[in-house]
# Entry
Amino acid sequence: MNEIAAILREIRPEFDFTTSSDFLGDGMLDSFDMVTLVSALDKHYGISIDGIDIVPENFQNLGSIASLLKRYGITQ
Amino acid sequence: MRAPADTAEIRAAFAAARRPGPGWTASLFADDAACEAWIRAGSLRMSTGDGWALLLRRDRGLVRVYHAAADAGALAAALSRIGDPDRGATAFVADLVGRPADAAAARDAYLGAGFEPHRRLVRLQRLAGPLPEPRPGSLPAEVRPAAPGEAPFAHAFLERHLDPLADRIPEPPDVAAAAARGELLIAGAGVSPAGVLLYAVQGRAATLRYWYVDPGRHGHGLGGALLREFVGRCAGCARIVLWVLDDNADAIVKYSHYGFRPEGLEDHIVIKRGKALT
# Structure
């Protein structure tokens, strides 16, 4: 999950994402950041996250994002 | 065009527009609570096609456009479905938010569909840190959280002074809810405020949503006092964001004084007026 944390730090360097279990609820990411995050994950892993998967629950914390990536064949 | 039955239908339609590859663009950033409120109000119409989804929302005298599209071609196909605004509405309005290259690409598609540029906003952010000292000679100003009963006066103040196209005037319940949370600050008498600042705290981040001082009351330090009170109340937040018109040099200087800096997002507002007005 270090890679995911590093990608998140690129988007929002002011936050420590390892300390939160609810990025959106804690205000660390907003809906605009989610779009940026999806693009960054697509680019970094060479995948294309399906629109149906771009929902807040899949980006809630490091574990959620890792589970989402696992569905696209990416293991951390 | 049809009225969506529920938020799930909107989400599914917008998700279905996504295709593998670059070029995907979307402009609906509202949460489920907002979408549900719009559905209850009967203010939504939706249309879908191959690789695109459009949502139109009647907002007082305007129709706001939200899209999801697989690429520029799909977006153009979606926008070609927009005719004239509904009877009684003066214009279609779209907010195209993103990093400069992404927002500009969506903007170009809208311009190709007959929209015109209206204004551009940039998002600023302030990270945690001390506030600058008040300017020498600044007089104390009466700035305080609005009492719930003062929310209607604050709403009337915003409605009187804001640009409905660029500023998206909040609904009265929205202002009332902010007052109930203690997130509505006023300067001067509550019945006839001289200035208003409305904000929202979400966990460790806050958004300054509206900050305005009656032009006739400028020069008395009210704007600075409101901003200082707001930043002080958000001392526990690691980040504060706000949107500002890119040509509002005075506001940008003021925000810069309090530590706000551009953080990379832009909002291109484009409009398409009804034929009756051309």
Notes: Residues 31-45 of chain A form the longest helix (15 residues).
